[in-house]
Amino acid sequence: MNRTFIVIVRTAVMIAIAGIAIFPIYWMVMSSFRTHEEIFKYTTLSPELFLPVEWTLQNYKDIFLDPSKPFGRYMLNTLFVAVIVTAIGLLVNAMSAFAFAKLRFPFKKLLLTVFMSSLVIPYEVIMIPQYLLMRDFDWINSYMALIVPQIVWVFGIFMLVQFFSDIPRDILDAARMDGAGWSRIFAKIVLPTAVPALITLGIMTFLNQWDSFLWPLVVINEEKKQVIQVAISSFQSLRNISWGKILAATSISSVPILIVFLFLQRYYVQGITMSGVKG
């Protein structure tokens, strides 16, 4: 009886915590169907707080039918950049992590230490020299400026190094004795064992790129090449804040992230909890 009571209390507490976490998202979605005047009209606990009184799709029509701010184009731009950075970044970061974790070369520990030390440097510090580099390459206002600097992610390499370090060295040595090269070992042995970690890193990379704001704001000036977070910020100004448009755009921009996480959450949790292959 006591155990059943504990389970009930624990479940109730978890449901309450989940409800507190989900309510802002629910309120955001419901408010996107409200008129501008109604969004902040109801602040007390009442049915009107949870459901719109006057349902409207005008906010969604405004963001998708405005020719001066093509919201659909912004989403496609963001999706394109996020997918390319995630795909290439996974390959590059995985190869770098494998080299640091399993290969032997001079000054490996020193290079890894210097490389990891960049994690403590604020992004704002390197943004200006990075911008100047993009300018010298003539990549300002191009997708290359959004993609290339974001491919190498030090945190992603550090995460995969921890995972690859747990792969038994004997497996790799046996493959080497059978005549397999490092590239084949990486493709046939290492990558298949690292699927949960790679999916976890992929979700994190995709999310970072989807939510990217500061760097696109700096390097992209052309309206048709802008990304979604910068577009959402353009719905507010010093004199007017279009909360209906902001809530509708934010609701739409949350859909791809939710879809990706719902389909890959099992691998995400597995990649976070497991430390690698145990020998």
From TrEMBL:
Domain named ABC transmembrane type-1: residues: 75-264
GO term, biological process aspect, one: transmembrane transport
Protein's membrane topology: Multi-pass membrane protein
Keyword Transmembrane: yes
Localization terms from the record: Cell membrane
Entry GO terms, CC: plasma membrane
Keyword terms: Cell membrane, Membrane, Transmembrane, Transmembrane helix, Transport
TM annotation in the entry: 7-29, 74-98, 110-131, 143-164, 185-207, 246-264
Location, primary (coarse class): membrane
SUPFAM superfamilies: MetI-like (SSF161098)
Cell membrane keyword on record: yes
Family, per entry: Belongs to the binding-protein-dependent transport system permease family.
Protein name: Carbohydrate ABC transporter permease
Naturally occurring in which organism (per UniProt): Cohnella cholangitidis
